[in-house]
Backbone:
């Protein structure tokens, strides 16, 4: 009898743990919900999420990418947790606040709830839907280089 109770508890706990969302699933959910909230237009092929706070080197790489590719109409840049838009504009040497392909995420729609929140995120889109995403991080230092090869 005791062994049946223990077995039932083990099966129940395994079932419960298997239903939890993984970090990747949480990220996918936030990205998909953010896309719906901002009513993303289907003409965008890429969504680049730049956190205002986080991994300094990774963010600098994203800012350099933004400076070089801000005029590409098929890339939407989402700025999250921006402390000063004016400072960011000075850093990259471009005006941002009136651009159609820059979204300032004041509501936190794209606030990634995982440890990856400190890294810039590159989202590939098809017809306004997220297909895949990756982060520019110390573990994936070539994310923006790969993106450059895909858009040029």
Residues:
């Amino acid at each position: 009898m005791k062994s049946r109770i223990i077995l039932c508890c083990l099966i129940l706990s395994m079932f419960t743990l298997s239903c939890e969302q993984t970090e990747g699933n949480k990220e996918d959910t936030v990205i998909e919900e953010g896309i719906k909230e901002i009513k993303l237009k289907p003409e965008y092929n890429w969504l680049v999420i730049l956190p205002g706070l986080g991994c300094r080197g990774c963010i600098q790489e994203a800012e350099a990418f933004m400076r070089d590719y801000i005029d590409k109409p098929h890339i939407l840049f989402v700025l999250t947790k921006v402390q000063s838009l004016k400072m960011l504009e000075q850093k990259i040497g471009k005006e941002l606040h009136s651009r159609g392909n820059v979204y300032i995420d004041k509501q936190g729609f794209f606030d990634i709830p995982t440890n990856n929140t400190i890294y810039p995120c590159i989202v590939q889109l098809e017809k306004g839907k997220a297909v895949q995403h990756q982060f520019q991080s110390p573990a994936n230092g070539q994310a923006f280089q790969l993106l450059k090869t895909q858009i040029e």
Notes: The mean pLDDT is 87.
